[in-house]
Amino acid sequence: MNESAQPTQTRSPHFQALCAAIADLGLDFHPHPTGNFVVAGVRMTSVSPVFAFSVSEHDPVLKLKVILPLVVPEERRAAVGEFLHALNCRMEFGCFRIDPDDGELQFGITHDFGEAAGFPGDTLKRMTLIAQTTVDGFFPAIAKVIYAGMNPVQALEQGEAHYFRLRGCDGPGDDPGTSE
Q: Which of 30, 145, 146, 152: CA 20 to 30 A from 114?
């Protein structure tokens, strides 16, 4: 964590705990000067998105928004929306979103950690890993729908195969990240 990333005393205790937990993950991050969120660039295999971590000052809610470095052209938004809807129906944690007005593509995941438990650094780590694996796993398929005009159903099949390869398994029944 660099000097500009040091949490200040004017920030909420939740925000200070968020900064400490992100520093523990080894991410280079920068607190936003006007809000209770921090931004970190994360380099992955398929894409280098921006991770925006936030925590409410009054509610124990941890949010992670991953902003992908592309804008979906208007003529491809319906196809990408179809792909994301089908994908989101299969996901257990988080969801992809597309802004219908400007085409910005995001992945988001939220966790209500409750006051009694304190700030969940381990949960932040799991949320970050889920976001990294999910975005990295499905980004190539999203790009194929956008730039190659691939059918969303076919792209979803390819995306799932890529995602499970990244997870080191053959499919949902073989996924080491599940307890089934």
A: 30
List pLDDT tens digits, range 29-55.
998 887 778 999 888 888 999 999 998
- Do residues 134 and 92 touch, judged by C-beta distance below 8 A? no
- Measured from the Cβ of residue 152, the count of other Cβ atoms closer than 10 Å reads 22
| Locus of tokens 């999910």 | 134
- Number of Cα atoms under 13 Å in the Cβ half of residue 134: 26
For helices 121-147 and 152-167, angle between their N-to-C axes, nearest 10 degrees:
140
**Residues 124 and 158: beta-carbon distance below 8 Å:** no
User: For the chain, what is the radius of gyration of the CA atoms?
Assistant: 17
Q: How far apart are CA 15 and CA 160, in angstroms?
A: 35
* Confidence (pTM): 0.84
The CA distance from 160 to 153, in Å, is 11
Burial of 146 (0-12, 13-18, 19+ CB in 10 A): buried
Quick: pLDDT tens for 148-160. 999 999 999 999 9
> What size, in residues, is the chain?
180
